[in-house]
Amino acid sequence: MKALFSALNLLLLLMLFGFYPSMTIGPKEGWQVYSSAQDPDGRCICTVVAPEQNLCSRDAKSKQLRQLLEKVQNMSQSIEVLNLRTQRDFQYVLKMETQMTGLKDKFRQIEDDRKTLMTKHFQDLKEKMDELQPLIPVLEQYKTDAKLIVQFKEEIRNLTAVLTAIQEEIGAYDYEELHLRVISLETRLRGCMTKLTCGKLMKISGPITIKTSGTRFGAWMTDPLTSERNNRVWYMDSYTNNKIVREYKSISDFVSGAESRTYNLPFKWAGTNHVVYNGSLYYNKYQSNIVIKYSFDTGRVLAQRTLEYAGFHNVYPYTWGGFSDIDLMADEIGLWAVYATNQNAGNIVISQIDAQTLEVLQSWSTGYPKRSAGESFMICGTLYVTNSHLTGAKVYYSYSTKASTYEYIDIPFHNQYFHISMLDYNARDRALYAWNNGHQVLFNVTLFHIIKTDDM
Ligand SMILES: *[C@@H]1O[C@H](CO)[C@@H](O)[C@H](O)[C@H]1NC(C)=O
Ligand SMILES: *[C@@H]1O[C@H](CO)[C@@H](O)[C@H](O)[C@H]1NC(C)=O
Ligand SMILES: *[C@@H]1O[C@H](CO)[C@@H](O)[C@H](O)[C@H]1NC(C)=O
Ligand SMILES: *[C@@H]1O[C@H](CO)[C@@H](O)[C@H](O)[C@H]1NC(C)=O
Questions:
Q1: pTM for the full model?
Q2: Is the pLDDT of residue 169 over 80?
Q3: Which is the closest atom of ligand 4 to the Cα of 207?
Q4: Residues at CB less than 6 angstroms from ligand 1
Q5: Whose CA is nearest to atom 7 of ligand 4?
Q6: Are the beta carbons of 387 and 372 closer than 8 angstroms?
Q7: What is the mean pLDDT of residues 268-280?
């Protein structure tokens, strides 16, 4: 009886505030109130159904709007990432431009009073100029990219403003049009990102020492296919006689030593050239040329396969030895194995690998002897090879799988602790992870984006 009374009270309240019971108004407005049912104990029940239908559809719209906003925020984040990368490259370009201009001036000056100079100096300078000449169109292209990002940023800002403004009056705006604008922006952004993220290695900067731990030889890495928020670190000390992988939830946990899990692999590994890719560890099984795919989620081996003809157990290691015969790596394109075979006279063979089945999809034979390579890593389908693991090491040779061509190059990097036993590119961070004599270090890389222009 008391409950019925409060139901009546509620009705009264609703009427006072300008709401009416469902029978007096259409189903599209107001609240709906039902009352005077009895529960098993004989008490009266009052049920208020709210919000009503129209409000429900408003809710659906706000949900869609929220999703749109989230999308825009996601895009903003992507742009921030792009922008960060671009800024970094841009500084490099600016410096280079200044250098080039300086050189040009010097060149002119020297030309002016060349009688006072020996011909050789003059010739040296002229050659240096000629070397730099092809870079000019690249620099021009680069400026176009920077503009593109500025434009994207503005579009996002505009769109966010529109979205924020209409949050109050949802029904008023043409949702379809808004949706189309977001989709179009997203497509263009994705196109832009794929164009911008691939390029040619120009420079390696750093290193930053993240941690000092372990033996002289080992491997550490993050998964390039997970989001930056789920940035687990995997740590595999030593090149032989070990099968314990340590996991840390983040770089800072890694630095402080707060281990989150350890995995006991079913087989020992060989070398230090493992890779974590899309939640699985790919590694070379000890004393074999078998590649293992191990899932961290299930703790199971998902696939294993022989890498045909690949030398193993110090037949074709890198210069430092350590059973580093088979190097597994990932880049923007996918998963790769780098090794050497008798058939290719001990020179490096590059194979693209199916990440599910470990089958070789395609192979390229290079002319670079694996035993003379310090390390190698893949960026955008191009393999970069260093000439040593010791002081003075530099990136010395590159092989493009797209063009099936090679090039001798000269990109120095600072081998701070004098002995590198692992060097691998992470496409998400656009960084090189290295194990440098018991130090875990990171290098940044600068890529030049040589772009096929379309609508821009
Ligand atoms: C935004 O990004 C997050 C994390 O990457 C993702 O879970 C979410 O689905 C994205 N939202 C939209 C609307 O794309
Ligand atoms: C963003 O809005 C400003 C001012 O309304 C406009 O001038 C500009 O063209 C818009 N930019 C884009 C990329 O739509
Ligand atoms: C990553 O793994 C998921 C399933 O776990 C799969 O759907 C996706 O295609 C994989 N991505 C790549 C690039 O292999
Ligand atoms: C790489 O560049 C980013 C952005 O400029 C910077 O925050 C980071 O510290 C750099 N890392 C290394 C290893 O130099």
A1: 0.68
A2: no
A3: 13
A4: 67, 70-71, 74, 227
A5: 84
A6: yes
A7: 97
